[in-house]
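Team,

Forwarding the record for the chain on the shared tracking sheet. I've put the sequence and predicted structure together so nobody has to dig through attachments.
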Amino acid sequence: MSDIDVIEQLYRRGEYSSAESEAIRILDNLRESHSDDAPVCTEAIELACKFCDIGDAGRSVRAVQISQQLFEANRDLFVQKYGEISYHYNLGNVFSALGEVEKRSHGFRYVPEHSTSLTEAKRHFWRSYKLLRDKGKKEWPQLLINLANALSNSSRIAEAMLLYDRARQIAPEIVQSHSARAVSLEWLNQVSHSYSLKMLAEIYQGYSDAAALADSGDPRRNTFEMRCSSVRETIERHGTSIAAVIAEDNIDNREFDELSEYRKFSLRNGLFLSEHGIYCWCNGARRDDLTIPTKQKSVSGSFVPRLELLLNRLKSEFSLARHLYCQAIQEIEENDAVDAQSCFTELENDECIGISIESARAAFRICFGILDKIALGICELYGVVNKSENLYFERFWKQDKDRWELLNAHPNPGLMGLYSIATDLNRHNGEWGTLKQWRNSLEHGILAVTHTDHSDDPYGTFNHASQIFTIEREKFLSLTSELLRMTRSAIYCFVWTTRTEALHEDFDGPAVTIQLAPKE
């Protein structure tokens, strides 16, 4: 039996401390046979993976930190042997494990400054995800699950749900795709301070599917079955049953088939602002009915009506961005009619011009406008508005030291989610910082969208001295879709942040209840 097999056996028996000690002994022996502190060898890479697993399961910061050191010291060998996609995936696992260990510590709070490990985890998972997509390779279901976990732990549950669903569709046999989704829905219940019978049924179904797939010797199986029993009892206390909720959902699915193609598209792509729509595509999720008060609770605070006014603005602008995006990717006769009225000079540079691509560009710009308004809303909520300051969502957090300290004085999962999105969009080190560069180019320079990646430009039209970027149409539409989902997630987090603060008992003011007026 190899040394690695010994560690694996100890790990599987749950003897994490012994597994860590054995791994350290083996690592010390490897280091003695090399001059460097971190030996460059295949065994070191295998040990790095084991240290990560042990640290995660055994809640050992030391084990996870050793794993990180080994991965980073052996980066070139790892990339050469397994590829950059796998490297970032594994490093994402390391920081995710570190984040889990930190989250279980007594000093952890849901504030932006405590999100460093989670931020690094999602950054590496995003890098792996983007590399996989750019290389045209099949999606890795485990990468989707782990990325979803990192986003969910950062309270970006709306984005996480879409990734869990994709993983379940690709590999329904993976236990974690069902159990992690159920855990994320339980977290949604806490973050949003709301629930529905359908949410409870989805949680039950997730644990039930996970229990059915788990091996008989899997220690998680008993946990899944206990969670099923607990959720079933909760549903029964509401005077109904799992079977009744599922039967009602089947009726909703038949109603879904009768919706317009636009509404079906929006539901399937996670583009409605409905808390029900985070976990269900049924007819009941077809409206942008997100509000700061919930059906279960009214909220108090003089700031609530002002921020509900802002939310109305966010929903209105998002609905336009969603409509424009849909118009851009679908064949719509009205687009042809409008394009027929415009004449463009043929420059033979393959640029996309016309109402469809302008619709996508407009949707892209609107998203950043929404995000900047959310920054204004956060400053309004916490009383740190500076009227002379131009607020930009991705970088307003740390521009003022007093503001940063105040935001970290209020534990709030929704606020942590907003900060997580902002770190993604940061132009300097965010994995989606390119989107901000494109936004600036759309507003102040030239962003040319072309039909193909390899466009001829015989007249040198793209050789401007000013800021200019070129991007292929399908990639631009795909990334606009990502930005829309990120923006949607930010709107949810803004609502949950405000709702959490409004539910604090020390706020005075009249109770605010729901009064929606849908515009058909």
